[in-house]
Write a structure and sequence with these properties.
By secondary structure, the protein is mainly alpha-helical. It has helices at 2-12, 17-29, 33-46, 50-66, 71-84, 90-101, 105-118, 133-146, 150-163, 170-179. The chain is elongated.
Length: 180
């Protein structure tokens, strides 16, 4: 089992940030979010690698999001990640989704728009629940409808349907189709 392998490595090097990060991923995959959260925080504490800190903060936010009653802390982790590397798109995307879940449509729209204007797509070392750049376009399309920008919403969904369908995950393809 991967968890046992990572725990053996941890015994030999408990302050190694990569080992802590990998343990966090293992626990997150097992849906043990509290344990995962602690290892992601340890990773951020023990490394000088800005990208690894960023990804650890995002993963921490994901853990908090799964626990439901930690929305403020989840938002804080995402904002911390955003302030650390404002040119990475994942924090904008996840913040947009967080605001959308709270029916804060203008906040969700703003995060999607800022992500599209400031961030550029990068590869991450882990699954950050970020589908790719089209995710920000999708978020902007959904939230523009809710703030009364119906024409913009239709244009964005049409763009996604016509130009990005080949790279979108099936669930997003279906959502774009349903919204059109």
């Amino acid at each position: 089992m991967k968890l046992q392998e990572e725990l053996r490595k941890f015994i030999d090097a408990p302050y190694d940030p990569i080992i802590n990060f990998n343990l966090g991923i293992c626990y997150l995959e097992l849906d043990q979010t509290t344990s995962a959260y602690s290892y992601f925080l340890r990773t951020a504490e023990f490394t000088d690698d800005t990208n690894l800190i960023y990804e650890s903060l995002i993963q921490s936010a994901i853990c908090l999001g799964k626990q439901v009653h930690h929305r403020k802390s989840e938002r804080g982790m995402l904002l911390h990640a955003l302030s650390l590397i404002p040119t990475r798109p994942e924090s904008y995307f996840l913040l947009s989704q967080l605001y959308e879940r709270s029916d804060d449509w203008i906040g969700a729209y703003t995060m999607a728009e800022l992500g599209l204007q400031i961030a550029f797509d990068v590869e991450s070392i882990s699954n950050l629940l970020y589908p790719g750049y089209y995710g920000l376009i999708f978020q902007k399309a959904v939230t523009s409808w809710w703030i009364g920008r119906h024409d913009e919403s239709k244009e964005l969904f049409t763009y996604l349907f016509n130009e990005k369908e080949s790279i979108m995950h099936d669930s997003y393809k279906q959502l774009v189709h349903n919204n059109l």
